[in-house]
Amino acid sequence: MDVSSQRSTLLQVLLAAILVLLCSCAPASQHGASRYFEGKALELAIASERGDAKEIARLMKDEGVNPDKIFSSKEGVPLIAWPLRAENLDGLRAMLENGADPNARIVKHLHGEDYHFNNAMVYASKMEDPRYLKLLMEHGGDGNTRNSNNEMLLLQAFIAGNKWKNVQTLVEQGARINEENFGRGDSILSYYAGRGGFKQAYWLIEHGADPTLPTTSVIDPAAPPKYAMVEDIYWGITTPDNLPWQKKCQQWLIARGIPRPPMPEHIRRTREAFKFPSREEDIPLL
Questions:
Q1: Which of 184, 181, 246, 185 is CA-nearest to residue 218?
Q2: Do 102 and 93 form a contact (C-beta atoms < 8 A)?
Q3: What pLDDT, in 10s, does the model give residues 59-115?
Q4: How are the residues of the chain apportioned to helix, strand and coil, as percentages rounded to the nearest 5?
Q5: 161-180: b or e for each residue (b if 16 or more CB lie within 10 Å)?
Q6: What is the model's pTM?
Q7: Which domains occur in the chain, in start order?
Q8: C-alpha span between 179 and 77 (Å, rounded)
Q9: Which helix (H) or strand (E) holds 113?
């Protein structure tokens, strides 16, 4: 091998060593961000999951990385939602303080209609820690947005293992408390009252929830509307610790002249199945 070939080989080895060294020095994602983002967007995702406010500001202000326009090809995850996945509140705060939009989401026209991918608000509504949701809403997050299945955030918080603190945060930050999920009287109050959660139900009523929203029948939309929440409050079964709250709910109705309706058949059957009194005359008000 001549001298020039030896020098070329040595140069290649040195370059490879330098490349390895550079790669080893670069911060890596601990949450698989490289499967979702690349380039400067990946750098911002990694900075957000580390809570590196200085690097986040540099990337957004100096490098021009705009998380409002960056979504993963996988699942359409908005970049602003990445610190939620990494559970780094400081990273989320830094992105918001540098101008990231908490409502950013990708919309695609699929099968003749617009499909709205989930945004950071949807992810936050299902988290254990309510601080993420509150922080997003304090920076303009819309508590009335809906998920990709057109379901309200209040319901998302409820069905994700009853994230009650998130329900409270949404209500306290301005979400419409009497919003109906599918337009059949199915407000967030209906989900708690219908399952015997009268402590939460009373809190919701005190914060403006209306238990007299009419419930229409899915089977027969032309049938007269019912008042399922009123029926649940007067006749529903619950746990002993919820009984005082059920009583408060009943008193709220009585004080407003809302009478006790006849017991519906489905509640009668439930009471019988769980060995509760099932005749109206045997069930006094609390």
A1: 184
A2: no
A3: 999 999 999 999 998 889 999 999 999 999 999 999 999 999 999 999 888 888 888
A4: 50, 5, 45
A5: eebbbbbbbbbeeebebebe
A6: 0.86
A7: 18-101 (1.25.40.20), 105-175 (1.25.40.20), 177-286 (no CATH)
A8: 26
A9: strand 113-116
